[in-house]
Design goal:
By secondary structure, the protein is α+β, with helices and mostly antiparallel strands. 14% of the residues lie in helices and 32% in strands. Strands 1, 3, 5, 9, 11 and 12 form a six-stranded antiparallel beta sheet that branches. Strands 2, 4, 6, 7, 8 and 10 form a six-stranded antiparallel beta sheet that branches.
Length: 230
């Protein structure tokens, strides 16, 4: 008489052979970063500089943009997940005692953007990426004499910011400082210190092949048990 393998045993086998898997993190370094200048709207500035300048002045603002290309990982990530932006503040030149500043970080929405395919080598104020920018909800407060300070911003639902070319653009701006000679800056992707490079950290979806392999092993194990019981 043949005996059937109990369902509970099959369930137990699958539970043992299919452990939970944590999604692996992937870190993307910025592909482009530069600032644009309202004092010369057709000029492309220091795209290969180790820093980019951010300055809210009474006139002639400097507005920075940082771009990340997700093309290499777009097929292996959940585009509704959170992401963490990492930037490192450089310094404020000519800062005076007691100077403070708050910098804001906004992401370009993928709804009706313009010039979203900008490049650091050609971007100007007149060709800067424009459209609806959404504040990422975490600002950086600088205080006098602080330098090389890292700052991380975690924001949700990156699908809202991924452009048709699989890029995400971040705008960095700041308040007006009292001394017009003040020049705040952040480290760029061309900084000689790798730890200072702007990065975007995402979580990758676990490879389905691993789960399929474990399921195959489970099935073979069950078949072997059934044959021994016959």
């Amino acid at each position: 008489m043949k005996r059937k393998l109990p369902c509970i045993l099959a369930t137990a086998c699958l539970a043992v052979l299919l452990p939970s898997q944590a999604a692996a993190a992937v870190t993307l370094v910025a592909t482009d970063d530069n600032y644009v200048y309202t004092g010369d709207e057709d000029m492309n500035y220091q795209y290969d500089s180790p820093v980019f300048t951010v300055k809210n002045a009474t006139s002639n603002d400097r507005i920075a943009y940082v771009k990340f290309d997700l093309s290499s990982v777009i097929s292996s990530i959940d585009t509704n997940q959170d992401a963490t932006l990492n930037l490192t503040f450089n310094q404020v030149t000519n800062a005076g005692s007691g100077d403070t500043a708050e910098f804001t970080f906004d992401a370009l929405s993928n709804v009706s953007p313009n010039n979203e395919d900008w490049l650091e080598t050609t971007v100007t104020y007149n060709t800067r990426p424009t459209g609806t920018y959404i504040n990422l909800g975490s600002n950086y407060d600088w205080s006098y004499n602080a330098s090389n300070v890292s700052h991380s911003i975690t924001f949700s639902n990156i699908a809202d910011y991924i452009q048709t070319d699989n890029t995400i653009t971040i705008k960095v701006f700041g308040p007006q400082l009292g001394d017009t000679g003040n020049n705040p800056s952040f480290h760029s992707k061309d900084s000689p210190t790798e730890a200072y490079h702007p990065t975007l950290v995402l979580a990758q979806v676990p490879e389905p092949a691993a789960a399929s392999l474990l399921l195959g092993v489970s099935v073979l194990t069950l078949i072997g048990l059934r044959r021994r019981r016959q």
